[in-house]
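Notebook p. 47: complex prediction with NDP.
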Amino acid sequence: MQITESILAQVEARNPAEPEFLQAVREVVDSVGLVLERHPEYRAARIMERIVEPERVVIFRVPWVDDQGTVQVNRGFRIEMNSALGPYKGGLRFHPSVNLGILKFLAFEQVFKNALTTLPLGGGKGGSDFDPKGKSDAEVMRFCQSFMTELARHIGPHTDVPAGDIGVGGREIGFLFGQYKRLANEFTGVLTGKGFGWGGSLIRPEATGYGAVYFAAEMLATRDDSLEGKTCLVSGSGNVAQFTVEKLIDLGATAVTLSDSSGFIHDPAGIDAEKLAWVMELKNERRGRIREYAEHFPGVTYTAADPGLDHNPLWAVPAACAFPSATQNEINASDAKNLLAGGCFVVSEGANMPSVPDAVELFIGAGILYGPGKAANAGGVAVSGLEMAQNAGMTQWTRETVDHRLRDIMVEIHLACVGASERFGTPGNYVNGANIAGFLKVADAMLDQGVV
Ligand code: NDP
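Predicted complex, structure tokens below:
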């Protein structure tokens, strides 16, 4: 495996302070080693060396004025990673932890994920270290307007089409779109996740969570099993977590946990539709904390996050399935062991790269159904692609149409992963399957398009 080692050494030397990016690259390079051996044409064209280098990175100042009249300064980013398959596409994240390395990891993952969707989408990601928590609507609006004032010159409906991610939901997309429209003097599908009344797609808010559940159902079907009656752990309580729970309820499973960065709730009776509606109101309208769930509903325990612990007790709750839906590296090796000890045999990742490499190794070693984020959470970007198609056709599809197409795409992605993992000698390994299937599609397009 000399080729892969020399590629990794180069990437490490060139990006020394970007651990998350290196983690994401290492995983893909490990998976495609055999592909590179079998395909000298990819090596000759230095496809892998080009894929790990963003086509363009934009970093900019975002000055804004808070409600007290004080000038604040944040940093904005857009990583335009790869456009071999279509315009750059990927979300914007507003969170204090955002830095160049985290966004490069997300943009890199996005390239392969988007390739898996079967839609003509390149890969990108962006965001800011701005923290929307505790800010007024007016502050969020002023920040979004300043952010878009610079970003606008780099994006466009055929160039780069951002969407939401952590900290960027319907409210932020609205403010960002309004400012883009004003600057560009045109009403185009330059962002996805728009409100339904002004160009959004039905099912876009639901898509990532629904997709992760559909992917789990497909994995279970390979063992003649289903989600019906299964106890499930869900982390996070934002967009992805909420609609994961909604679809689990739909398919007869029982979600028993939710979390935020302060702690998690365990509701052994299950989060039913009524409780979920309460959570949506708490999180999306009142912007409250998940702790309040335990104060409101009887029989629920709340466990505050303890940074001193070497594991997250949420993952020690016995359950058959886990849907990590908060953030990267939220499942470490101790958590993976606890999950396996608690009877978990399905992990479908709503979040991006939520499991550290040692945890992934434990899951694969144990032979459980492990669906990595770039396959399992691709439903969000897939419906973003469908939103672009609707915008381009000046039309809006019904809920049923979009949901069917989402379901079909998740089935296709599952099949592509299974097929690629078998062709390259690791049947049942969805990590290799997703990485290889995504890589092949991008690599072939790059070969066709020459050295650019
Ligand atoms: P939201 O902002 O709606 O929700 C994020 C949730 O995760 C919140 O409950 C938040 O808690 C929690 N969280 C965030 N950061 C941390 C942290 N460092 N530690 C513990 N909890 C944390 O984001 P989304 O639901 O949109 O995104 C969740 C994950 O899904 C991310 O990994 C994202 O990249 C991925 N994803 C999202 C897609 C989408 O369509 N939205 C598409 C594909 C993947 P708190 O409120 O305390 O911060």
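Notes: Residues 399-423 form the longest helix (25 residues). The CA atoms of residues 318 and 342 lie 4 Å apart.
Next step: compare against the earlier run before touching the bench.
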